[in-house]
Amino acid sequence: MKKAAFLSIIAFSLVFGFALIFNPQTVIGSKKSTSAGPGTALPDSIHKLVQRACMDCHADDGNFMAKGKINFSAWEKYDSEKQYSKAQAICKVLTKGSMPPKKWCANNPNDVPTQAEKDMVCRWAGSLKK
Is the Cβ–Cβ distance between 75 and 39 less than 8 Å? Predict the structure, then answer.
């Protein structure tokens, strides 16, 4: 009898633990903000540039580390605050020249963003609201 009760408690604990791990909920009062809803889609001009110069790495089927920083396949799922911060970061790395990576640029010279395209991205990023 004691063994059956002990095994039942263990089984319940495992099920409860897996439920928490695979279905996380934001705790009320936690510092992590909840999304007020999905963000907006990329404008066509930005989407074309992203498709050409970014999505080789920054998409669902892209590089694990790159899509961890930003995943354009999930862009519309980001809330507006996250889209704003990601857009600011995109402008910064494009302006600094650290994205796209030099090796990628050497292998894809026709797809490297022009200065006008970089400026367009920064204007777009500046137009977003938190």
Answer: yes
